[in-house]
Amino acid sequence: AALISLVRDQEINDLVVSIGDLERTFNNKSDHHYTWIFFSEDKFTDTFKKRVGEVVSGEAKFVQIPEEHWGIPEWVDRERFADSLEYLGAIGVGKGWMVSYRHMCRWNSGFFFEHEALKDYDYYWRVEPDVRFFCDLDYDPFSFMAKNELKYGFNMNILDDARSFPSLWRQTRKFLEQNPKLVHKDADLRWILDLSPGAGPRQEVGDLNFFRSDTYRAYFRHLDKNGGFFYERWGDAPVHTLAVALFLPKKDVHFFRDIGYQHGINMQCP
């Protein structure tokens, strides 16, 4: 298992706060000391590496994302993409004008689990810069997931701006119509069948092999070819939420209510 973070050099101050909290409450206790893997589209500076090395208790790895996972695919209409950036920015959709945010959402949706740096790992805990962890954990979430054969864990769902993904559910329905047998027979679909779901996790502990599955990869390819990560502003959070709801039985999903967590104004308190 590994602790992973997608981060830029300029976010180092926020990142060391997040690392410090999680080390204090979990990773620097008992015999955990899990490896931290940091991803960025640019090379990390020596200063960044030094500061991170001072606060992690396990090994730290620094990985540059390949261009083919961070660029604009050839099938995306550049003019339509530019119009989307301008429009979503003008109507006030959060980060709707940011090219880098589109790349980030696409990478988190379809490529992070494919990276060579994670090939020897089965589980990940996603940690973002400027999040806080408040409560001591007296158990190992990774071991807990493995023992109970869980595939996905979270502890907070936040509603995203519906204007950022107007066609996401429609494209998901289209995929399901073409691949009806891929929906898990014990999936809990009650809350999404007649909705356009926009809730997504802000705290993930997951099984990488779920995302590496043929089913999830096929779903992502369908979405990616549609171009919604660029023509709209599809977030990785609702994409993950839909995939988990559709392709996993409810028993494989866990709510980590005992992980005290804060991201901005949003907080989960046990």
Structure in words:
This protein is an alpha/beta fold. The protein has one domain: Spore Coat Polysaccharide Biosynthesis Protein SpsA, Chain A (Alpha-Beta Complex). It is built from 10 helices and 12 strands. Strands 3-2-1-4-9-6-10 form a 7-stranded mixed β-sheet. A 3-stranded antiparallel β-sheet has the order 5-11-12. Strands 7-8 form a two-stranded antiparallel ribbon. The model has no long low-confidence stretch (mean pLDDT 93). GO terms for molecular function: alpha-1,2-mannosyltransferase activity.
Shape category? globular
Major sheet, described briefly?
7 strands, mixed
Mean pLDDT: 93
Strand order of the largest sheet: 3-2-1-4-9-6-10
The rounded distance between the terminal residues' Cα atoms is 24 Å
Fraction of residues in H or I helices:
25-40%
Describe how the helices and strands are arranged.
Blueprint: E1 2-6, H1 12-27, E2 35-40, H2 46-53, E3 60-64, H3 78-90, H4 99-110, E4 123-126, E5 131-133, H5 141-147, E6 152-154, E7 157-159, H6 168-178, E8 199-201, E9 204-207, H7 208-211, H8 214-226, H9 228-231, H10 236-247, E10 253-255, E11 261-263, E12 266-268
Parallel strand pairs: 1-2, 1-4, 2-3, 6-10
Antiparallel strand pairs: 4-9, 5-11, 6-9, 7-8, 11-12
